[in-house]
Design goal:
3-stranded antiparallel β-sheet; cilium; 16% helix; 4-stranded antiparallel β-sheet; single chain; 1 helix; elongated
Length: 225
Amino acid sequence: MDIPGFRKDLPNDGGSAFVQAMDQATARVFRLETGKAGFSDSPGPLKQTDLKTDISIVSAGYFYVEPTTGGDISLTRRGDFALNPDGFLVNGANEKVLDDNLQPLQLPPFNDLKVSNIGEISIEPFDGPPGQYVQVGRFGLTSAVGETLTKHADSHIRRFDGSVPAPDQKVTIVQGMLEASNVDAVEELVLSLETQRQFEMNIKFIKLAEDIDRGGAELMRLPQN
């Protein structure tokens, strides 16, 4: 809930399987999951921070990042950006943010930073005239319209085959705002309570079935002298 732009995980498709032991009356039930797990693409609430490096997507779409683990390029909605000591733009997870050519964004020293709603990055250079801005890059953005995306084992968002859609720059962003996680704490608490009650009810049914079986066995038992 505290990670900006986090996408809520959804359960993937699955079913149940029964494993029956030889010469025993008991059986074990296992949950089977098929395919990749999905996630909710509903937007999270926007928070105004007024920080020049906080960028939020306000339409469908994603930023491109280079994971710190060295894996394939992935997608994210996380926009809490900052400059690392080498001048590369990174997010709060220290992942390098990529431009529209899918290369890491590296910015020269600047006094001020402006980002347009289509992702153009302009700076007021340290050694330039005051109030004069120069465009130095552009965020790589994809709307991912019509794409089926999933979270992989490293928790990063990509297509099922591990690739990412090509940049289409059809995304609207705003500066000075941050998108929060789309996980609703109240909703998750209610679901947790409902799941707990359902579990307790199932345990009671199992105990009741056990009592009925035991009672039937006692009725059928031959009288003992």
